[in-house]
Design brief:
about 35% helix; elongated; Beta-lactamase; D-tyrosyl-trna(Tyr) Deacylase, Chain: A; about 475 residues; six-stranded mixed sheet; 14 helices; five-stranded antiparallel sheet; 13 strands; alpha/beta
């Protein structure tokens, strides 16, 4: 399967070289960003109330249980007719899987090849987020520490936070919540009190194991900033600058350690030589520590902007929680296991990575709908953040520039997925009669020409569900 970087044509590359790489990246939905091929819509006024939204003070499951069970259920025949038309739409190509189900009853209303695994693209992140929410403590944070070493050494220890700021942390941010400048100030103060002004710096990134890049990623995925090598220590998600689509460092942990050496120098501590790898003594004295944003916020960030690197981090954290290696293999195994524990049938599902970027992943529409059913079920309150955190049509995240002039605007929450030849969408929609439906559409052999045509086909279908009386 080709990835967005391989699909960029010569003309687009030329444009990218003069500053329009954002457009290409966002058009293929493999990186976060607000740039779009469509005209920017006017700001909504007033802001619509989105289904599932509720005041933070309400009980966690309230917004998922207040649908009117007496709202008319669309006739299955009418929905099946719409599904058949979508499956036959030439804009999607010959291999499209679809499933539509009622959220309250679980009744399947319509489908087309719903059990056939297909390339999921970023809809795979639904499984990763569900596993993370079910397994990890949303209030937990990731530590980045400096500990004492032997013979005048200090060791920078990565705790899984690739979202560090190279300078001062921002408590209101997810990316950049903790800063190496703050950590250096802590360490320098302690060293000064001990009369130490010169140290040798080593760094420990052993929390994550195995290869840092996936064999199913193209070099262009890294060069265009679609993903970074996955390490337990990095600044700005491993990118070579704070630009959203900057090329990734080949060794983000080493780059972070070099940044830290600079920050130490600014704080009055001389670093003797360059930083080198080491394994810290677990019992070593802690000289300083900064912590990431809460994991609940990290998961919400990834659902909104669909960041591939963050998804891979989350899968490794799930693997650690489940006692598996914090690697690509361990992470994907842990995600599928955690989702299965929720009662989701993952038969036939394959994950080559946790983000959906790599070649080799396959998920059936029925599996995606089952994840959505679990997330909208009051029996799984920890998953509520998935149901309410996926983008809102025409308003937020990767759906901000879609459904802007549609009855589905504000009525659909869904996770997007796009690669070259792949267009996917899975989420919830509230019909005109007030009935909430679950749906998944996976088309993995779309015709050449980019995302505009296949997305339009999917959006027409979902808009039809939103406006549907279908009785």
């Amino acid at each position: 399967m080709a990835t967005p970087g391989r699909a960029v044509g010569t003309a687009v590359v030329v444009v990218a070289l003069v500053g329009a790489a954002y457009l290409t990246a966002d058009a293929y939905d493999v990186v976060p960003g607000g740039i779009t091929l469509a005209p920017v819509p006017a700001d909504p006024n007033p802001f619509p109330t989105a289904p599932g939204a509720s005041d933070a003070a309400q009980p966690a499951t309230a917004a998922l249980l207040d649908l009117d069970p007496e709202a008319p259920l669309p006739l299955a025949g009418a929905v099946q007719s719409a599904v058949d038309q979508l499956a036959a739409d030439p804009r999607l190509g010959p291999t499209t899987g679809v499933l539509v189900a009622d959220r309250l009853t679980g009744e399947v209303l319509a489908g087309h090849a719903p059990d056939d695994p297909r390339i999921p693209a970023s809809t795979a992140k639904l499984l990763t987020a569900a596993a993370a929410l079910a397994t990890l403590d949303p209030a937990a944070t990731l530590p980045t520490r400096v500990v004492a070493g032997g013979g005048g050494e200090i060791v920078l220890v990565g705790g899984g936070d690739m979202m560090l700021s190279g300078t001062t942390g921002d408590p209101s941010a997810v990316v950049g919540h903790a800063g190496l400048g703050d950590l250096a100030a802590q360490v320098a103060k302690g060293l000064a009190l001990r009369g130490t002004t010169t140290v040798r710096l080593r760094f420990d990134d052993t929390l994550f194991t195995g290869p840092t890049t996936n064999a199913g990623w193209a070099a262009s995925d890294l060069n265009l900033g679609f993903v970074s090598p996955i390490t337990s220590l990095a600044v700005d998600l491993g990118r070579s600058s704070d630009a959203t689509y900057a090329p990734a460092f080949t060794d983000p942990a080493l780059a972070a350690a070099k940044d830290f050496a600079v920050r130490l120098g600014e704080a009055g501590i001389t670093v003797d030589g360059g930083p080198t790898r080491a394994t810290a003594d677990p019992g070593a004295q802690v000289l300083g520590e900064v912590r990431s944003a809460p994991l609940g916020d990290v998961i919400a960030y990834d659902l909104a902007v669909s960041d591939n690197t963050v998804a891979e981090i989350l899968s490794r954290l799930v693997a650690i929680e489940e006692g598996l290696p914090a690697s690509f293999q361990g992470g994907t195994q842990a995600v599928l296991h955690a989702v299965g524990v929720l009662g989701v049938d993952t038969s036939g599902a394959r994950l080559a990575d946790a983000s959906g970027l790599a070649d080799g992943s396959a998920i059936a529409p029925r599996t995606l709908v089952a994840v959505l059913a679990a997330a909208t079920d009051g029996a799984h309150p920890r998953l509520r953040a998935l149901a309410t955190g996926i983008p809102i049509a025409g308003l937020t995240g990767t759906l901000a520039d879609r459904y802007t002039d549609s009855p589905a605007r504000g009525e659909v929450r869904a996770k997007t997925g796009s690669l070259t030849g792949v267009t996917a969408l899975a989420g919830t929609v509230v019909t005109a009669d007030g009935r909430q439906l679950l749906f998944a559409v996976l088309a993995d052999a779309t015709p050449p020409g980019g995302q505009l045509a296949p997305r339009a086909a999917v959006d027409d279908f979902v808009s039809g569900l939103a406006s549907c009386g279908c009785r």
